# Entry
Amino acid sequence: MIPADEALERLRDGNRRFVAELGRNGELSSESRRRSLATRQQPFAIILGCSDSRVPAELIFDQGLGDLFVIRVAGNIAAPSQIGSIEFAVERFGVRLVVVLGHSNCGAIHATLEALDRPEAISPALHAIVDRIAPAL
# Structure
């Protein structure tokens, strides 16, 4: 595990590359593109994905700023706030495609399986996720 100050410096370095257009996405995150999106956005798809750091939608679909309306939550659960976010994008931006992006080895699924054996071992906030996943297991 890296210290918090080192993690913050990594984020700052990445943001500097982003601002200088030296990032991996090139024209997908260019200054002109950022400027064009400052007052409006027109995503073409909504992605409900897991918070897992291994599946960032913009990277795995090779899309840039403004292309996707991404909602990320551990376990891809669709609580009222996530449903509201989807409805917002449909109403506000006219998006017609919603993708629920699953992946292998989901930590939230593993945590749910563990919680079924030891429910006292998880926090009340984690229960909000586990309780939504458990019926599917």
Summary: Residues 4-19 form the longest helix (16 residues). The chain has a mean pLDDT of 86. Residues 16 and 22 are 8 Å apart (CA to CA). The first strand starts at residue 45 and ends at 49.
